[in-house]
Write a structure and sequence with these properties.
alpha/beta; Aspartate Aminotransferase, domain 1; Aspartate Aminotransferase, domain 2; 2 domains; seven-stranded mixed β-sheet; globular
Length: 352
């Protein structure tokens, strides 16, 4: 099984050219026109190396987040930032709140850290129980969580994050928060952990999901700990962000029309898609704050359901390889209304 969604290339090699990819959580509005225009007008930039300190890019990201650019580090996708952070920490053990993104564990193990998991329980609707987490972490020096969480779509409100980070701070522990999907949350600017400005918090962000640019690798981290950022910069390869990715960040973050259109789409569509899926017998649907939905199959298994849906022309994410999820679970991306209607009908036919 693929570790992540989005491997349509394998299906294409097998002769399936027409496929709706509902395994990959990318903005269906596509690449912003502002970025396309900037690329066409600035091909000459490829003749020069990027700024090794990426000051203009970091300033654009800082303006977007209303923070000083010196609190920002950029990388070749959020994955590079994730691996850099884990490599730069002088710790022995970390706790990952799961089910969640698999690369956290890989980054920790490659960095020679011990890993344990804290389970988000299905009977608690996969919502984080902070009290239970604080009781169980014991000798871990770092807590890793995704907010909103992939694949559950659940979001931890800022007051909970505040309390958790304060308690961890008392114990000299750190908190890593992946906010790659936070822009899909209503009023996210007032809910991000960035507002806490706490040294023991590191925040991971990506442009991949919201701005529909998985092929242009650009991610960034936010930290108020100068030593952490310094260690990461010392470990980072030079010029890891290419010139087109740099242009993408500088241009797209000011594209207010695209941002507004995306917000209007996701706020309405995730509610509609959830409500329509919830009407289908033989599945259980979990309400989401992000641009994907976790679904439990009540009478089928994810591998066989995935194969049936491929025959219907739809690729869904088999979620059974997430820690603590079994073969009952799949994950669906949220696309535009026309595609979502087609997928709803195909699911209805498949679960009969």
């Amino acid at each position: 099984m693929d570790l992540h969604g989005g491997n349509i290339y394998r299906l294409q090699r097998e002769g399936l050219d027409e496929i709706l990819d509902y395994s990959s959580n990318i903005n269906p509005l596509g690449v912003p026109e502002t970025f396309k225009k900037v690329v066409m007008e600035n091909f000459h930039i490829l003749e020069k190396y990027p700024d090794p300190e990426y000051v203009a890019l970091r300033e654009a990201i800082g303006k977007y987040n209303n923070i000083n650019y010196k609190n920002i580090i950029v990388g070749n996708g959020a994955t590079e930032i994730l691996f850099l952070y884990m490599k730069s920490l002088n710790i022995k053990k970390a706790t990952i709140v799961a089910p969640t993104f698999a690369e956290y564990e890989r980054a920790l193990r490659i960095s020679k850290k011990e890993v344990e998991f804290f389970q988000l329980r299905e009977e608690e609707d996969f919502i984080l129980n902070v009290d239970r987490l604080l009781e169980e972490i014991k000798d871990s020096e770092l807590v890793v969580l995704c907010n909103p969480n992939n694949p559950t779509g659940k979001f931890i409100e800022l007051d909970k994050i505040d309390r958790l980070s304060k308690e961890l701070e008392k114990l000299n522990k750190r908190l890593f928060i992946d906010e790659a999907f936070i822009e899909f949350v209503e009023d996210w600017e007032n809910k991000t952990a960035k507002l806490l400005e706490r040294k023991n918090i590191f925040i991971l962000r990506a442009l991949t999901k919201f701005f529909a640019l998985p092929g242009v690798r650009l991610g960034y981290g936010i930290s108020y700990d100068e030593n952490v950022l310094k260690n990461m910069e010392n470990n980072r390869e030079p010029w890891s962000v290419n010139s087109f990715a740099e242009m993408a960040g500088i241009s797209m973050l000011e594209d207010k029309e695209y941002i507004k259109a995306t917000e209007e789409w996701i706020y309405e569509e995730k509610k509609w898609f959830y409500q329509e899926l919830a009407k289908i017998d033989k599945i259980k649907v979990y309400e989401t704050k992000s641009n994907f939905i976790l679904v439990k199959l009540l009478e089928d298994k994810a591998p066989s359901f995935r194969e049936k849906m491929i025959k219907e022309g739809v690729l869904v994410r088999d979620a059974s390889n997430f820690v603590y999820l079994d073969e009952s679970f799949i994950r669906l991306a949220i696309k535009d209304r026309e595609k979502n209607k087609r997928v709803i009908e195909k699911i209805r036919r498949t679960v009969r």
